[in-house]
């Protein structure tokens, strides 16, 4: 009798026991998760907007890189049919959720998810990712959560207007070229000021005027008598410094583009810039979100809000998410960012709470500190590359059994450079960190010279890194650059010492 | 506190535009796949969707990336036996070896071909793209069994559900004005005069006049009240008329030689041809009937199964089939009501003496009535007697008579396209 009574009272504390979700239970879970995240773990988030969607809508969201509004392009259609095919054949599952860095933070939840999965996803996306978007310095610097949706609306409308006016084909050609150069359309060091969509529209018109004047000056062809000739003798090097943002440079200086084309380049550039922080913080972002869904749901269990069945289901999914197969497994496809991120975040907590002698030697600053504020600092001030360089501990290296290979095409063998031992920890850590350095992963290509007074040709310079050449797409890529620039394009691969190793040219036939 | 929105009822197919653009971009590959599918497939699943395969290199979007070569380092997990300084032989064949897996995982998908599915509808769309049925415009025939209702003004009769309230009330109003407009005006005057009398001095003469006026008012009221507010003949009804709907219907004659020289392979090729034509007609006409006529020395109308599978032998007299077809047209498919299409398949053999009879039969009883007559001669041999006869006839009926030669299944679809190619300047219907 008494046993039954305690059983009952415990039962009543559960938010729900069914695996079916309803809007009421989702609201109840969200309320509890929000309370724990805010009061207990001090997570600072944007307000949340949770949207329930069907699986086909999820596929739509996939196709438009997760954004609720996006302009049309065939490549998104390609992406869509690919996802549709793989999903309908059972070859891939869809993500449980997509979350958008906007204010309010929009999270899509699939209706197929069970109640447990919805709770996991809410903790993961609406409080994990959300707080990362709001706190991390890269997102704070480079993205504007307030304005992104408005900006995308503007972009979609502008591009569809261009399609009406200049034809879908023209716009598509241009977008193809822009997309090819998208990774070279980001500023890495300068900070743009965030502006609203309405302002954007006003400025767009001002820009049209300005660009026209500016260009006319640069490409002035009517010679002014006497005075001008002397100036010509002084060979002007333009641009004065090599430019890393190819799309920006082309937008501002291409001699052959119409104003609407410049605006479209700008749109692609802005989108690339918006996603740039996500590409740099994959491990941290997923690790952070995974760490928090794990911590928050465990806290819910400790408070008696969820039962054992809930926890079993949650832990099964969680274990799948953070699984890291070894290099010789058929399932291996590189390092799982969820696994590495989660392991490192949990490890930082461990170092704070229960430091070993080794930890004290390696991390004197944080060992034994307050884990909550330490993690908060980490989340705010690092990106993958620096995060790994700073916080990858020997323990995690041992747990993952990391080893570093060096593959030099001048040697007959591939060498093992370092493994998880005392001599190797630092080396592994440095090499893994480099692996997440985007400027190391992408070829370093910059705009070197424009022949302003001659044939207007554009010269790009590729500075070789460890003698690694460009892939076979390079000629195709020059065509895209040419499409935007309108005149001859040259690309030189040079060694850091200035020696040109290989040159590519795209020389037009009739100008 | 989160704001929870149910988006499940939002429209689907947000990606439709992108998907269409993708298909458009790769239509060359899709067309090729569709064309391959036609010669490969069984007839029974001819109509289904198709999975399209495009080589990955055709579809990839280029980016600047590192190629093979130079020095690179990569960190892997799950070390079991390696120690620092180990030298591993490069895997044979693939240069770069260890870095390979890292590269592949970068885009998350292997290097296999890009495969996707198009629906049945899309399949047929591609199958019959740029093809047109000749002479289709001529006979958008009126048939007796389908109607459309069209509005045709208003009527005095009808059922209450079709009552036109506005027109009824307007009509009632007009009638009231016509029947008692004068009385109403007079009543207004009388009332005004009475009001004046009430204001003035009371006297004998005034009282008399008041009496007269009131008597008139009473009379006017009776008359006005006698006119009903709404009368039967005020009621107006929306009129709908039944108009026969143009319903394009077609009959397709399949004529095939089943004499001894027709092998099962040739029959199969013929069947594919008939089936393609059937699908194509089905796309253009709502209602299609198919008549199967097979012949050796005698012609017979048979059902589909017998047509394709029953075995017969004997000589060949083509005119028997043409005459039978002429009879059937006369009996059941009046050219004024039906669009008639004929597809004939044969290996070209005919009894020599029969050619003249064929000629007469075609000119007199068949060709004048058909929309389009297609003949395919199947086989590797040189053109046979029938071919020369038809070639001759074609000059006189260039708008409705087409002949082609087919060697095997793979040629069926190209030949079909040739037969029904949209001619420049022809109206697209």
UniProtKB/TrEMBL annotation, chain A:
Task: Name all SpoVR protein-like N-terminal domain ranges.
Answer: 20-440
Q: Which domain of life is it from?
A: Bacteria
InterPro entries this protein is in?
A: Spore_V_R, SpoVR-like_C, SpoVR_N, Ycgb-like
State which residue ranges cross the membrane.
none
Per the record, the coiled-coil ranges are none
Annotated SpoVR-like C-terminal domain ranges read 443-495
Question: What name has this protein been given in UniProt?
Answer: Stage V sporulation protein SpoVR/YcgB, involved in spore cortex formation
Organism (species): Thiothrix caldifontis
UniProtKB/TrEMBL annotation, chain B:
Q: Where is this region: Disordered?
A: 62-107
Question: Which regions are flagged for Basic and acidic residues bias?
Answer: 78-89
Recorded hits in Pfam families, A to Z, give: DUF444 (PF04285)
Q: Which family does it belong to?
A: Belongs to the UPF0229 family.
Q: What is this protein called?
A: UPF0229 protein SAMN05660964_01246
Tell me what organism the protein belongs to: Thiothrix caldifontis
